[in-house]
């Protein structure tokens, strides 16, 4: 990790990443690790839930739902067993922050899971790790082993009545398995396919039992909140978006990498002050936020702040924190087609709007690219996107058209150029 740029970074979840030995629980403990767990175990589970609720922690996996509310829903249900699942599938192109956390501070994630399980009353847990993340899986397995040996995991943790077991599972390369129900199906040994919602996993998740499913970054924030109190957490960020956001910065920047910034940081500061700007001082054509399922914004929106409310005001979603910079050498339609090809490959095929809609969008995009589009095709393309958003069965199909719609909104001329203009080449 690069040295902290104190002007723009604020380290909570990455605070120990430079200092801790990821292969040693003792190293983690020497830096204050597992003190939050000790404190949590001295409180009632409902008090821990309240602390997390008061911190305003929202899920960092994309949807931004309150983590405290999820824990509370499961805590209130009388069922056995209850589950806590860590979503470490990280299949969204452009995202690599969860991998970073697991490879640099695996015990922080594990401690967050144990505290979360205590708060929710869960006794079984899973970490579902992207198949390609060999090193992360090895380190998480080692962390589980060390924590069990130290009675911080397993039966009667630290001599209390609370028991929690964690298993580690690997994905097999399907992006859809990051979707919470597809992931749950996969844990149950079935093909990863989304289920109808509601009921949500908090009511009926793994083996139809109440389940909290949360992202790696989300869970990694829990030890800090419990140890330092919710006020310390809300002191960072903005009223609508408390704490920090891990940004996976990639594309045409001088210093790509994982950066932790307070919510409220401008995208411009992420790209230029942290990322060093574009190599050879080329101009930015667009920045895609959140990954392949996120919006593409033009350079004149770079002052947009990483903040749920501000994004919502613009009708945009922040997704899981990827910032992908595309410079002037690239063609907008090529980038959008690349995104859609990814979704075509990853669509599970269960529902017609997504399975067929993506193919039709690709067909239309090709017409805009080679100049054979008709004026009516632009209307058709937008209608198709809206139908997909409204009728697709799961988040994959609902988010897949985001890049198309955002580029029609901000880069309309690129599409207009492709109407009745057959002299262009695809
Ligand atoms: C197609 C698809 C892929 C997803 N992939 C991931 C993923 O890799 N990691 C993740 O945390 N959330 C992913 N999500 C979001 C999860 O469904 C879920 O909202 C999230 O794990 C909840 O955790 P959070 O509350 O901490 O954000 C994905 C959603 C969809 C629709
Ligand atoms: S939206 Fe796509 S990924 Fe989701 S269920 Fe339908 S076909 Fe499968």
Summarize the structure.
By secondary structure, the protein is of the alpha/beta class.
Describe this structure in words.
The structure is a single chain. The chain is α/β, with parallel strands linked by helices and 426 residues long. The chain folds into three domains: 25-234, NADH-ubiquinone oxidoreductase 51kDa subunit (Rossmann fold, 3-Layer(aba) Sandwich); 244-327, Ubiquitin-like (UB roll) (Roll); 332-416, NADH-ubiquinone oxidoreductase 51kDa subunit, iron-sulphur binding domain (de novo design (two linked rop proteins)). It is built from 19 helices and nine strands. The chain has helices at residues 25-30, 35-41, 45-55, 67-76, 97-104, 106-120, 134-149, 180-187, 216-220, 222-228, 230-234, 267-274, 308-313, 332-346, 352-370, 375-391, 395-399, 402-410, 412-416, and strands spanning 83-88, 124-129, 165-170, 211-215, 244-251, 257-262, 284-289, 296-297, 322-327. The protein has a five-stranded mixed beta sheet. Helix 3 (45-55) runs antiparallel to helix 4 (67-76), helix 5 (97-104) crosses helix 7 and helix 15 (352-370) runs antiparallel to helix 16 (375-391). The longest helix has 19 residues, at 352-370. The chain starts with 24 loop residues before the first helix and ends in a 10-residue tail after the last helix. The mean pLDDT is 96. It binds flavin mononucleotide and iron/sulfur cluster.
